[in-house]
């Protein structure tokens, strides 16, 4: 399962005769499929190939249903170490079974985060602790572990917290103030804060946080095939959304848009999330041409992409925090070369425009429906060149992003890189 280290691959020298040791605290990791899992699997592939010593502290795999569905040999056992896909070691902590509600998920995250501290203390000493949001309890666990170990703390903000909690009204009243104060407290005391967008990095700098850097989401472009253009003539226009079905995406808009277009189109929604039951109910009430699919992987995902005329990237436009948020699936769609229906604002809209990947459309059913009617009538607009893929290769390929991340860590530890790989 673990792979060997490429010879002469390391850009970063060993210090004191040993490689850099990293403790990563994350609420979801391999073999689960989630945004933090995909990001850190890609990053750690490069970290491990460069000879770094990585230990991942994470719960027993139990997503997305909130319970363990895989064999213990794969999902892991609590407080046991497990070999990862590369040279990393995974230390599992227990979890609490839960459903789809935000409250039960939050309680589970709190429990697993609390268990991560003793797990980290009884593991080998690291040079740096990295804690990655949006699981806010993990940030507190990372802060406590780093202070007890007396090593630097890197806080990774993959979403715009605490702004997102304020916009979504996830927490209210005194609880709201406690969450905001706690996140702000940890951000100001971290040795480095890493964001995935430049916009949120600027927001944090404006709040007085000095050591902030950006390492965006991305992918390994060479692992993504280039799809053939959509058929020049087709009776039914197909739109595809693949990702989380939550409040942030406001998928009600595209369901209503599909109902307005009618039987001349078909909308496919792939994935899971807290809003999925309500979305299914809405589609039935509107008799919308929508098919819901479970989460797909591997060849099934590519088959669904190949069938689509346009791929949807969607975030609601009434939450200010989303001006500095880029959905992680954006880079995958850009690499595939499919037309993008982009219902986004701010930095995400700028990326779609710079990559010449598709159309930016307001978050309204009428506007989206009108765009889809136009695309169905003029299918030449669906044909893309390789501009968007080239943009990802230059700005969001994980081989480059991981190198940036390692440079940041090396600088933090006063271990300057030497020769390039």
Shape: globular
Q: Evaluate the radius of gyration.
A: 22 Å
Quickly give the CATH architecture of the largest domain.
Answer: 3-Layer(aba) Sandwich
Q: Averaging pLDDT over every residue, what do you get?
A: 88
Determine the CATH topology of the largest domain.
Rossmann fold
Main sheet summary: 8 strands, mixed
- The secondary structure category is alpha/beta
Strand share of the residues?
Answer: 15-25%
Helix amount: 40-55%
The first-level CATH class of the largest domain is given as Alpha Beta
Element-by-element helix/strand order: EHEHEEHEHEHHEHEEHEHEHEHEHEHHH
- Order of strands in the sheet with most strands: 3-4-2-1-5-6-7-8
CATH superfamily of the largest domain: Glycogen Phosphorylase B
Structural domain tally: 2
DSSP summary, beta strand count: 14
Runs in which pLDDT lies below 50 for 5 or more consecutive residues are 1-16
Q: What's the tally of helices?
A: 15
Terminus-to-terminus distance: 25 Å
């Amino acid at each position: 399962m673990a792979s060997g280290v490429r010879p002469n691959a390391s850009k970063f020298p060993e210090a004191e005769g040993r490689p850099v040791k990293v403790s990563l605290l994350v609420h979801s990791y391999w073999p689960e499929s989630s945004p933090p899992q995909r990001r850190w699997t890609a990053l750690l592939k490069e970290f491990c190939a460069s000879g770094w010593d990585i230990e991942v502290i994470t719960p027993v795999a139990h997503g997305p249903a909130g319970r363990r569905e895989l064999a213990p040999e794969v999902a892991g056992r609590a407080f046991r170490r497990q070999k990862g896909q590369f040279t990393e070691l995974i230390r599992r902590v227990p979890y609490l079974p839960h459903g789809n509600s935000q409250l039960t998920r939050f309680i589970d995250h709190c429990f697993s985060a609390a268990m991560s501290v003793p797990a980290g203390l009884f593991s080998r000493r690291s040079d740096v602790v990295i804690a990655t949001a949006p699981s806010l309890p993990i940030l507190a666990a990372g802060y406590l572990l780093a202070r007890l170990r007396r090593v630097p703390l890197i806080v990774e903000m993959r979403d715009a917290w605490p702004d997102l909690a304020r916009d979504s009204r996830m927490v209210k009243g005194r609880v709201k103030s406690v969450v905001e104060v706690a996140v702000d407290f940890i951000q100001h005391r971290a040795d480095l804060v890493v964001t995935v967008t430049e916009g949120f990095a600027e927001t944090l700098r404006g709040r007085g946080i000095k050591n902030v850097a950006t390492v965006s989401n991305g992918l390994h472009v060479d692992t993504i095939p280039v799809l053939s253009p959509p058929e020049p003539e087709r009776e039914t226009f197909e739109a595809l959304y693949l990702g989380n079905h939550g409040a942030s995406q406001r998928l009600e808009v595209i369901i209503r848009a599909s109902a307005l277009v009618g039987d001349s189109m078909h909308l496919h929604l792939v994935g899971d999330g807290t809003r999925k039951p309500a979305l299914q109910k809405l589609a039935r009430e509107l008799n919308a041409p929508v098919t819901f699919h479970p989460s797909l992987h591997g060849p099934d995902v590519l088959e669904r992409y190949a069938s689509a005329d346009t791929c949807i990237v969607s975030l609601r436009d009434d939450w200010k925090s989303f001006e500095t948020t880029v959905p992680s699936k954006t880079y995958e769609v850009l690499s595939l070369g499919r037309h993008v229906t982009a219902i986004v604002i701010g930095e995400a809209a700028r990326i779609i425009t710079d990559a010449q990947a598709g159309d930016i459309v307001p978050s309204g059913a009428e506007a989206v429906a009108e765009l889809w009617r136009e695309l169905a009538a003029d299918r030449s607009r669906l044909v893309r060149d390789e501009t968007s893929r080239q943009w990802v290769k230059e700005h969001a390929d994980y081989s480059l992003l991981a190198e940036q991340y390692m440079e940041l860590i090396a600088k933090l530890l006063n271990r300057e890189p030497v020769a390039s790989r």
